[in-house]
Amino acid sequence: MRMETPFAYASMVLFIVVSCCCCCCCHGCLEVERKALLQIKESINYPNGSALPSWAGKNCCEWRKVKCDPSSSYVEIIDLKKQRNASFGKWSPNATLFSQFKNLVEIYLSDNMIQMNGSHMLQAFCGMEFLEILNIHHNLLEGVLPACLGNMPSLRVLGLARNQFTGEIPSFLSNLSSVQEIDVGSNLFDGVVSLSMFSKLSDLNTLILSDNKQLEVETEPLTWVPSFQLSSLHLAKCNLNKHHGNMIPSFISTQLYLGELDLSHNSLKGSIPTWMFYNVSNLLELKNNMFSGQFLQQPADFKFSSLEVLDISDNNVHGSLPDNFGELFPYLTLIHMSNNSLQGNIPPSFGEMLRLELLDLSNNNLTGEIPQNLTVKGELKYLILSNNSLGGEMLPRDCNLTKLKSLQLDRNHFTGAIPACLSNSPDLEYLDIRNNHLSGNLSSSLPIFPEMKVLLLGRNSFRGHIPKQLCQMQKLRFLDISNSSLSGYIPSCLNKITSWKNPSLSSNGSTLGVVISPFKNAGIKIRVVFTTKYNHMCTRVFHLL
């Protein structure tokens, strides 16, 4: 047998090393993965985009938005959030390109206008045994969820929200033994799904099924015991317990560490249970249901809540608010209680909530005056008390709302003049005090608001001339001083307000505009028409319809 020469042996070793470098990762990156990434870049930039400029050269492990395993050089993380230029339209990538990354751990593809069969897209990831995070939020993916999605043992986060997936929410999702977060909200799922299917997922902490309007979510009867403790549960707009009397899900009382709970838009009935204020620490959304009864059924046993955001608007909650409301909810920043049947006074203890930024008690039956404590300290930016039966002065005379941006007091019974202390609110952008009994000389009482955009003063008893202070409000877009007792001529300086001179808003001598509510979940629109009315003083009036 012939002996191998040292030269031949060295040549063989060199051949093996060179072969490995060509096929694998001598440059710190697998060639097959580098080529796949470059094809993805070309596709996402079609026809002439410039995203991902660092994706060049041999070592894809050094590219931005890509992370490799330092020992094997396999690509582990690809982050392509918001990379598709919206002006290029929809993106239909070759899904098989993603299947090249066998050791992928995290993939982010949200906000890219991906339009294709979502089942095909997801199948590209099904074989990835190490994949932990799959995020394709906010695209245009269609179709049903593929069965292989239930065979991903490492998956921790499944993010499919804001797409166009259809069909039923499949039971095979209960096979995702490691899953911590499931978000399939804002899709087109239908059929009936029982939350009991998730009962064995002990690591589950976030479940979002909201805004699937054809879906029917059932939680009753409670013959199942959840093994999970959720931190976030969103079940808005999903016909919750439609076949069980629209009741609040019983299992929620077992969830002791909820940070967020959203049950909005479900026609839920009954009273709001006291334990709900204990069990939820951050955000409680219960708007647009059919809740009734008093706001807090058992205040005597109630210590205090850690809630930061509370929304019970658009229900049938009645009665008075607790006098010690501020002590019970010291951490609230946003309070939405509009469109209920609340009665009595606004508790002075509201002034003890030093973090409060928004208070909306509009469209109730509240009486009395605005508490002095509410207007002298804190972070209050939005105060909305429209359409109640509040009276007295518009604001306490020593008000000091230095961060106020919007004040809505219309359709009440306030009297007196505009308080001078309102000049302490230099950031005020929106003031609506229409339909009250306010009086006084407007030209001498109206402060200058440099940030004012919407000023609605109509249907009061103001007198005097049209204030020249208006000319210093250069951001003013909408003005209503109709149905008052003003006289004189229009100040010529009003013609210099540049925000009124947008040619695109002019049509046949009238100016049409739209005011959009600046508040959370804005959707209120007011149609505004600027017209000229001739009376005995030939005064032009900007009239709000």
UniProtKB/TrEMBL annotation:
The keyword Signal applies. Residues 1-28 form the signal peptide. It comes from the Eukaryota. It is a single-pass type I membrane protein. Keywords: Cell membrane, Glycoprotein, Kinase, Leucine-rich repeat, Membrane, Receptor, Repeat, Signal, Transferase, Transmembrane, Transmembrane helix. Pfam families: LRR_1 (PF00560), LRRNT_2 (PF08263). Transmembrane segments: none annotated. GO terms for molecular function: kinase activity. InterPro entries: Leu-rich_rpt, Leu-rich_rpt_typical-subtyp, LRR_dom_sf, LRR_N_plant-typ. Residues 33-69 form the Leucine-rich repeat-containing N-terminal plant-type domain. SMART domains: LRR_TYP (SM00369). One of its GO terms (cellular component) is plasma membrane. Belongs to the RLP family. This is LRR receptor-like serine/threonine-protein kinase GSO1.
